């Protein structure tokens, strides 16, 4: 091997190795500080793309869970209101049954008058519940007896194909004495006039009793529809929870750093850095041996 002084090949080799070691050490330290195996596209372009796609799925599913939870809350509010209406209607059955008997006194201030007063109060309260019940500032029941209010919950996994995008809708009817058949409304707008059923006579009381029983069945049917939708939303929430868990686990396996392996690699590169520095120093000193030939 010829002795030269223009280029120190040994030093260049040691320097290149040391530079590579320092690059790997810096990458290892970045992984330890961030906890991520992939910190840039240069680390693993394909893995980063897959992990980012999974994170988008997780974000969409997490929000969909919140959407479903809000939908359940609104439907449970409606169900609670209908439960109270059922209690009121059961009391109305008692009143109408009692007023249907001819052995109670009639006239102003009589037993029949007292029964009818309470009956009218029940109808007023049914109207109040129907008009004032709301969830997050939104009416729960429809304001139009002929058109139900549709409660819509959108669920998505965030994929571009939208294959798993679902809309769960529940129709909630109007809640009032009129919609339950306990009152009649004539006219429309400001000229509309509503007339409640009453217990002013035994015949009226018997007619009211029949109407109240029908109203109870109507409310029960509405509660059944709402209950089925609540169960569907809760089932969808359970499925989404499992999806989020599995996607998070898969994303972690792609993107998260294995701390044990990373620490071992850091130790290795620290040692290589030290030996590389020593080798570079020796290579520089070896070049100086050429000077002895000219002394």
How does this model look, in words?
This protein is mainly alpha-helical. It has 2 domains: 9-35 and 259-294; 57-254, f41 fragment of flagellin, N-terminal domain, CATH 1.20.1330. The chain is built from 5 helices and 6 strands. The protein has helices at residues 9-34, 45-99, 111-132, 202-255, 259-287, and strands at 134-135, 138-139, 149-155, 166-172, 183-186, 193-196. Strands 1-2 form a two-stranded antiparallel sheet. β1 and β2 form a beta hairpin. The longest helix is centred in the N-terminal third of the chain and has 55 residues, at 45-99.
The helix/strand order is HHHEEEEEEHH
Within the CATH hierarchy, at the fold level, what is the topology of the largest domain?
f41 fragment of flagellin, N-terminal domain
What is the CATH class name of the largest domain? Mainly Alpha
Count, helices: 5
First and last CA, distance = 21 Å
Number of structural domains: 2
Strand order of the largest sheet: 1-2
Tags for this model:
f41 fragment of flagellin, N-terminal domain; two-stranded antiparallel ribbon; rod-shaped; mainly alpha; 295 residues; 63% helix; single chain; 5 helices; two-stranded antiparallel sheet; 9% strand; 6 strands
Task: Write the SSE topology.
Elements: H1 9-34, H2 45-99, H3 111-132, E1 134-135, E2 138-139, E3 149-155, E4 166-172, E5 183-186, E6 193-196, H4 202-255, H5 259-287
Antiparallel strand pairs: 1-2, 3-4, 5-6
